[in-house]
Amino acid sequence: ASDVGAIDEIIDDGKNGLLFPAGDLESLVSRIRTLLQDESRRRQMGEASYKKVVAEFTSTRMAEKHLEFYEKVLGAAR
What we know:
Distance between the termini: 41 Å
Pfam families: Glycos_transf_1
Organism: marine sediment metagenome
Order of helices and strands: HHH
GO molecular function, one term: glycosyltransferase activity
Number of helices: 3
Number of domains: 1
Protein name: Glycosyl transferase family 1 domain-containing protein
InterPro entries: Glyco_trans_1
Shape: elongated
Number of strands: 0
């Protein structure tokens, strides 16, 4: 994935995906080649991605994070 915005909240470079600088075609090609040549690494990254999404990005967990955020904002306003 290109390293823009908040993508690093989802992708841990080298653990559950590979990041490259936006617009850097050479880096993108290099990372694609890396994954094409290493089935074990692809499998490990896929499993790590699944685990992260299940742990941190379910609808329930996202609702909890939103609630925590609003409680924090409202608490600071008092």
